[in-house]
């Protein structure tokens, strides 16, 4: 086993691909320009370097953030290797459309802490309207198989179900929560989306449905409470359920949070649209993390104290009116070796 020598303080968000199999209406992948971007996987040598230098310092690690991890054809190998570093809380988020036995077995081998499955709808129409390109039937088959697989395995990750809400699906959220509970979810998360102005998401948001949204969310919460399942509601529009910004702590990106894109760029978080802190292709993580750009940004964070509530964040962009930042995050160029 490759045991940690350093103190584990970091929350690490890592994408090993720049691609997704879907074009969800809530996501930058629905931008038509994405189809023309070359798809790539973080090369194994670069991944191995990231793993050896960063994972021993991680208290939390997610192997996906902005993209679909199962688009990495070797994801099972990447996951199993991550498991060797024994990060206390390791997870990945997936749409589950490509979930196969090799991934499930790697979850068991790596003793994955949590697997998060996106369930944006409680019926075929709502789900497939939001999750463009996904099949409701395949989701049901794959999740039933995963349930059965984990029930027979010596290790079961916690199941977190994420339900993202827009006008097209929020009325089916109660059914979605029922489904999540049938799957044996340990945690349910209901959230309105971040805004991606470039894909017309504002027109789908729930600004004018606050009261109806509130009653849906309360019913969802009651179901979870009755099943003693933890529920997290991240709402911007439901009266009485909106996130109370006075209770949100300052953002700890740059202190404990770090994001690494599939091309090796190191950033304070995965929504970071400014210059990266550095790239791991030819620098070590220590060089990047202790470099002058991070030091200058830390000064700015200390001055401005942005809240850890990403929908209102302006520090992550050079220009708060920059509508194209999310596309540029997906369009980072392929990393070319050799990797120092
Ligand atoms: S929300 Fe997730 S599954 Fe949907 S397009 Fe974006 S990365 Fe893919
Ligand atoms: S608040 Fe801003 S800097 Fe902090 S994690 Fe969110 S988007 Fe990133």
Structure annotation, total helices: 10
Beta content: 5-15%
Distance between the termini: 24 Å
List segments where confidence is low: pLDDT < 50 over at least 5 consecutive residues: none
Q: What is the spatial order of strands in the main beta sheet?
A: 7-6-5-4-3-2-1-8-9-10
Radius of gyration from the alpha-carbon trace, in angstroms = 20 Å
What small-molecule ligands were found? iron/sulfur cluster
Helix/strand-derived category reads alpha/beta
**Element-by-element helix/strand order:** EHEHEHEHHEHEHEEEEHHH
Query: Percent of residues in helical segments?
Result: 25-40%
* Major β-sheet annotation: 10 strands, mixed
Q: What general form does the structure show?
A: globular
Number of strands: 10
- Average pLDDT reading: 93
């Amino acid at each position: 086993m490759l045991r940690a020598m350093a103190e584990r303080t970091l929350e690490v968000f890592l994408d090993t691909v720049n691609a997704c199999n879907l074009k969800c209406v809530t996501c930058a992948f629905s931008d038509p320009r994405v189809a023309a971007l070359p798809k790539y996987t973080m090369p194994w040598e670069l991944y191995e370097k990231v793993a050896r230098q960063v994972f021993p310092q991680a208290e939390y690690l997610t192997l996906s953030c902005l993209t679909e991890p199962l688009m990495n054809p070797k994801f099972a190998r990447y996951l199993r290797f991550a498991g060797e570093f024994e990060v206390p809380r390791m997870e990945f988020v997936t749409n589950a459309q490509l979930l196969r036995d090799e991934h499930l077995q790697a979850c068991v081998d790596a003793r994955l802490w949590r697997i998060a499955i996106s369930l944006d709808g409680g019926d075929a129409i709502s789900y497939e309207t939001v999750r463009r390109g996904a099949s409701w039937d395949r989701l049901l088959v794959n999740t039933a198989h995963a349930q059965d697989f984990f029930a027979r395995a010596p290790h079961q990750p916690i199941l977190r179900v994420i339900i993202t809400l827009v006008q097209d699906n929020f009325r089916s959220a109660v059914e979605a929560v029922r489904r999540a509970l049938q799957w044996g979810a340990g945690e349910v998360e209901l959230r309105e989306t971040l805004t991606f102005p470039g894909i017309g998401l504002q027109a789908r948001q729930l600004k004018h449905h606050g009261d109806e949204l509130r009653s849906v969310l309360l019913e969802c919460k009651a179901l979870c409470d009755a099943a003693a399942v933890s529920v997290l509601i991240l709402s911007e529009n439901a009266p009485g359920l909106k996130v109370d910004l006075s209770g949100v702590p300052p953002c700890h990106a740059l202190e404990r949070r770090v994001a690494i894109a599939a091309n090796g760029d190191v950033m304070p978080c995965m929504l970071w649209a400014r210059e990266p802190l550095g790239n791991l292709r030819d620098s070590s993580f220590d060089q990047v993390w202790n470099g002058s750009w991070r030091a200058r940004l830390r000064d700015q964070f200390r001055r401005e104290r942005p809240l850890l509530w990403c929908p209102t964040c302006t520090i992550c962009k050079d220009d708060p009116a920059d509508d194209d930042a999310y596309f540029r995050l997906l369009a980072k160029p392929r990393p070319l070796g050799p990797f120092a």
